[in-house]
Amino acid sequence: MAGTPTIAAVARHAGVSVATASRALHGQGASPATADRVRLVAQELGYRPNAVARALQSGRTGQIAMIVPDAANPVYARMTSAVQHELAADDRQLLVAQAQEASAVAAAIQRFGPQLIDGLIVVPLRPGPQVLDALDRASVPTVVIGSLPESARQGVVRADSRAGVRLAIDHLLERGAHRIGFVNGPVDTTPGRLRLEGYREAIAGAGLEHDPSLEVAADDFTYAAAMPAVRALLDRAGATAIDAIVAANDLIAVAALRALADRGIDVPGDCLVVGMDDTELAQIAIPSLTSVDLGAAARGTLAAAQLLAVLRGDAEATEHTTVEPALVVRESTTRRERR
Amino acid sequence: MAGTPTIAAVARHAGVSVATASRALHGQGASPATADRVRLVAQELGYRPNAVARALQSGRTGQIAMIVPDAANPVYARMTSAVQHELAADDRQLLVAQAQEASAVAAAIQRFGPQLIDGLIVVPLRPGPQVLDALDRASVPTVVIGSLPESARQGVVRADSRAGVRLAIDHLLERGAHRIGFVNGPVDTTPGRLRLEGYREAIAGAGLEHDPSLEVAADDFTYAAAMPAVRALLDRAGATAIDAIVAANDLIAVAALRALADRGIDVPGDCLVVGMDDTELAQIAIPSLTSVDLGAAARGTLAAAQLLAVLRGDAEATEHTTVEPALVVRESTTRRERR
DNA sequence: CACGGGATTGGAAACGTTTCCAATCTCGAT
DNA sequence: ATCGAGATTGGAAACGTTTCCAATCCCGTG
């Protein structure tokens, strides 16, 4: 095959110059007659503009990169899916990269040269100085999904983890819980830190005394890592002493369900459980899981929309947006009525 | 800022021509002395080659696109993650697009012009004529994860769904099951078709008679869609008549767990359940789920590796690879011994 | 009929690289 | 000292597009 036809071929076949052909295809400043003719010829030849050449000339590639801690994690998978969907509507492509460690995140940010992408969405688990530095050095508009200092020069879309935990705890108190355990993920992550703060605030706000033995943290936001943490909490607090558990995560909540079941503690009869993220897991678990929807998909959509607005020049690059959490009540906090 | 430095700037500062600078940075055909000097200057200036310009010149972009039905689905999320990981090791970027309907898949394949990507990985749920046609028209090396006619000009990495179902059924027979129900996904998809075939083969192979009332198909491979199908199966067959269920999917299997629990049928006491894909869900479910690992991550890794081999010229573009399934036995098929 | 202004067009530069080709240089062998 | 082969270098083309600028055309007005 003779390779894909270039605009020069189109121009030649249409009997016009390359410049005119380009204008005709763009709809700018060519006479209607020639524009039609050129478009027809382009169609016949199956001409498709070379995106790379256009990018070189215009400095824009139509590509957005996204860096997530782990694409296989359901929460980030949903975010990615939402971002991709939003970008596709604007005819842009999404590049996905995974990076968990601070150095890897920083490296990933640097790797995307300014020429390859028009914008960047970063989901940092631990936005330490190294990551912040890399973000500041990034040469394209950037939106961070997570929390950043107020002074950050990047756009930010964040969940309100604190309010989310408060929602969960208020709900539990309302349902009569008194001793509410909290199973967190790593405290050195942004979500871990904020959720712990939220827990303490809500407990204090309810007039309950702060009991450190009710708090426990897993090494990771995973089922496997959560299991020993939950067991430790139950051992430590005495199984009967806890009448509700808030988990920083649906995966952790499911681990709690399992640990409780293993000890013969009925949920929701003897102990209530609330998860977070409202992943599909929450609907599926037995008993189904009351969960706080922190708006993973919404954050993805919003981050993408915000980035696109900045690229269009319609918005400030540093806008901070917060997605409100919502409680979804299911069996794990609902007293039984046999169906 | 003066924009990012170009190779011309580097050349000027190093006192050499652009051509020499290019060679020096490539390590090809420049004297060691100049190469060092140029590299030093490049470092000082913070020079980073313009990927777009290089792509225009070389015709290669270092980008691979992947089209999945739904990035949020755990199975595809894992595949995507595995592909991204494999590509990153070769310094390539992954573009992710989502398309479910045949026309959308075809459109997505076409959208990626030959100039934007070096290769393509497609995961088609329903590889009908429209998709096959688009695949044949794709102008870059392509690997399909799924099943394609033997004559296909694309590379193929497939799971052995048939063998997987057989594995599940042999296991159930071994554990004493006699009447094994099958809850499938849509039969017009490749996995749906193959898994049904596998079921029938295995049943026949075991000398059991084919009972259509034991087969049921959900409208989609999801929990929500599976629930009515499972209920229909239980209603139709009479709850006691079934002593085991094979699900085409972990999500479907979990729906079965739920439906059985709702009817007071104990798993594994009264009915055994086997899922497929061995997602995290299988470990997490209560009871934990025996599941057939069809190698989602392995297929992703293999597809990426195969594509890279083709791009390097190390492999045939049309190679067909099959990933062997493996059974992971858990509680849902294990007679109780209280822990 | 001449003139001027707007619409339309074409030539060529520019984007930043890589690579072909020819020119120059180095250095050992005659 | 001369030659020549190989190493090293620079000029320039090429990749395919957009866009600046100047040239041309058309058409209505004076």
Automatic annotation (TrEMBL), chains A, B:
User: Has the keyword Hydrolase been applied to this entry?
Assistant: no
Q: What keywords does the record list, in alphabetical order? A: DNA-binding, Transcription, Transcription regulation
Q: Output the Gene Ontology terms for molecular function.
A: DNA binding
Q: Which domain of life is it from?
A: Bacteria
Kindly give the InterPro entries that the UniProt entry links to this protein. Answer: HTH_LacI (IPR000843), LacI/GalR-like_sensor (IPR046335), Lambda_DNA-bd_dom_sf (IPR010982), Peripla_BP_I (IPR028082)
Domain HTH lacI-type, chain residue ranges per copy: 5-58
Name the UniProt record assigns to this protein? LacI family DNA-binding transcriptional regulator
Highest classification ranks of the organism? Bacteria, Bacillati, Actinomycetota, Actinomycetes, Micrococcales
